[in-house]
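Thought: the user wants the 3D structure for the chain below. I'll pass the sequence to the structure tool as-is, report back what it returns, then summarize two notable features.
Action: structure_tool
Action Input:
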Amino acid sequence: MRVATGLAATAVMIATAVLPRAGATSVEALYQALEPHVLIETQRINQVAIAAALQAIDAGAELRPTGQSDAPATGSIIAIAEPWPEGLARVKVNGLHSDGRADALASLRALLKPDTIGLILDLRGAGGSDLDTLDAFGGLFFATNTPLYDLRDGYGNVLATHVAHADAPPPSLPPVMLLVDRGTHGASEALAAILRHHSGVMLLGETTRGDSAQRVRVPFTDAQDLWVGTSCIVPSDGGLYAPAGVHPHVPVSPAPPGTNLLATTSTDAAAPLAATPAAPLAATPADTNATDIATAPAAPLLATFTGKDPVLRRAADIILGLHALRKP
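Observation:
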């Protein structure tokens, strides 16, 4: 949800460079946006030089074939939403896209049960660019209309303030472990930045990409479009995260390349605290019979879900430790 606080950006602005407001952007105009007195011989300019000029304006700017989108607007927001043993739950996010927002939020809310002791929200490698979806995810953690972040132009002017919004009050959330890595970018990185100072959220993993720019398409030539930042996201708590990235509270290195993250063994020295379920109490005629207990299926091992993923393991261990400390 956007609350306008200033004039909408009608020009592409990064730092002190202002590109033309409409129409195909010529090479001369692009360079003169950087230095008004520069003259360019267009026949002698090459693709490398153009790319260098763009990146002087915006390090993430790109020239792309005409019609190519900036990021997928469609696709599954959530890849995995599953309950885990010991009262844990995990949600793996693909990206904060526009399609399927209501279904994604409903599945996340449905996953949280009264006996859920902790949620692992996995944003590793997640991206997306839909700000309405970002605002809706903010509504899971903050009351409706709570300011989340500002959109600012290259001069620092506030273009709009985005607030949390939701169709229902925020759920009663257990402790949340938010997993991030160097591939966390776009709207997902903004969500991590917004939640970093939330009292019920702990970030684990690696520092994120460090790119807060919001990019739009500007016609460049008949064959190419320019994707360049017109604004940047600044969390309402003032925590700038570009270019340094969002730093986790608990740094955890990923598994070495080639590791089979799903493989686990009962003798693994790094197994989580609850890798092996406690043995059932001896049966008595008053409660049940030994035959029923002997034939009952064993509870799934938590290690089956965390595998050899060190970040998932650390997240599970922290949740279980916090829960143990709360016990009377």
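Final Answer: Structure generated. Residues 3-24, 36-40, 265-299 have pLDDT under 50 and may be disordered. The helical segments are 27-34, 47-57, 101-111, 131-138, 186-195, 290-295, 302-306, 310-326.
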